[in-house]
Amino acid sequence: MCRHLGWLGRPRTLASLLLEPPSSLLVQSWAPRRQRYGTVNADGWGVGFYVSDRAQPARWRSARPLWGDASFASVAPVISSGCVLAAVRSATVGMPLEESAVAPFTDGHWLLSHNGRVDRAVLPPARDAESVVDSALLAALVFDRGPGALGETVVEVARRDPAARLNLLATDGTRLLATTWGDTLSVLSTPDGSAVASEPWDDDPGWIDVPDRYLIEVTPDGVSLTSLAPDGQESA
Ligand code: GLN
Fold it and tell me: With a 6 A CB cut-off, is 164 part of the ligand 1 pocket?
């Protein structure tokens, strides 16, 4: 995925997260401000979210551009969640163009999005991958290893493919985990909750740019950053 976002906090409507901000994911699908690879994100979009008393996330994905989805625009103002993960896709050359190749991927409990690319040859074959797209194989590996080991998995994959770009975003409904490895990411903490996004969706001065090669964890208690470079550790 070329641009993704996550929200953990007070329930918000999907419209307020994906469609309404001045530089929302919707706007980022045709006019991203910080995208380093690709120009538009028109190869599909997806959103996953959790609702109370249900461990399994709900998911809506499409192989079409977000801007053309009038049905989603109609229901998005009345769907609310306190934990949301969404993405718009710019397909890597050679990857399939189909709904099953669009994030978020899931193992039935976790949701995962990948902004970047990785050589599929360095990933183990995954029986339960949702698609042959590199991101789905990577998601299957992360689910297999346990998403709690996200940082370790990213470092290991990068060792096998030094050209890989591995900005990942994952959630189980109670926390968000993200990595920066080759692309942009920003975080915003508000009294209502925290957001993680490939790029800020507005000009709020509270957005903080995350340096490259970091693991970000968002819980109801706040945001922590850990360097994925050997020996680095930091909190914010
Ligand atoms: N490699 C992934 C795909 O083809 C993600 C692409 C991206 O981040 N632009 O869908």
Answer: no
